[in-house]
Design goal:
Blueprint (H helix, E strand, L loop, with lengths): L4 E4 L3 H13 L6 E4 L2 H9 L15 E4 L8 H10 L8 E5 L4 H10 L3 E4 L4 H18 L16
C-alpha cells in the first residue's frame, strides 16, 4: 500500500504549486486533494462524498492550510485529534499565515509541524521536498492499534 498524502487546500494556485513541487521533487505518492475542512473530514471519516472509501487506507500525512471554507483548518485539526481513527496521523499546517496566534493554536490543538509557505516557487518546492522526504520516507508512522502490521511503500 502506498503512502497517501492528504492535501487540504482551497487555493487552486497553491494546490497546483504543491503538486508541481511534489513532481519536481520526485515524490510520486498518491495525493488526495480536498478543498475545504468539511471535505477533508468527510474523506478521513468516510462520510459524504467519501462514504464508499475504504477506511483502512488512511493518509500517511495531512498537509493542511489554515484559512479554509466551511470548516477552518484549526477546527478540522481539532476534530482529527479527537477521533481515535485519526488522532495519530501527522498533520502539517502548510499556510501563508505568519500569525504567532495561529502557530500557537495549531501546536496546542496537536499539529505536528507548522510550515509557512514561501512565496518564491523554488523555495516552496524545496520546502515541499523536505516535507515529503521527512514524513514519507524518514518518519516511521505509528503502528495500527489492532496490532496488525501494515507495510508501506513509497
Amino acid at each position: 500500500m502506498s503512502r497517501i498524502i492528504l492535501l487540504v487546500e482551497d487555493n487552486p494556485s497553491d494546490e497546483a504549486l504543491t503538486l508541481r513541487a511534489f513532481k519536481k521533487s520526485g515524490i510520486s505518492n498518491e495525493v488526495v486533494v480536498t478543498r475545504d475542512g468539511a471535505e477533508a473530514l468527510d474523506y478521513l471519516f468516510c462520510t459524504g462524498a467519501f462514504a464508499d472509501r475504504n477506511p483502512a487506507h488512511m493518509p500517511t500525512v495531512i498537509l493542511m492550510d489554515l484559512n479554509l471554507p466551511k470548516v477552518g483548518g484549526l477546527e478540522a485539526l481539532r476534530r482529527i485529534r479527537e477521533a481515535e481513527a485519526t488522532r495519530l496521523i501527522p498533520v502539517v499546517i502548510l499556510t501563508s499565515s505568519d500569525e504567532e496566534e495561529d502557530r500557537l493554536k495549531g501546536y496546542e490543538i496537536g499539529a505536528n509541524s507548522y510550515v509557512r509557505k514561501p512565496v518564491e516557487f523554488n523555495q516552496f518546492a524545496n520546502a515541499v521536498q523536505q516535507l515529503g522526504l521527512y514524513w514519507l520516507i524518514l518518519n516511521e508512522p505509528a503502528p495500527p492499534k489492532n496490532g496488525k502490521s501494515t507495510k508501506h511503500e513509497t
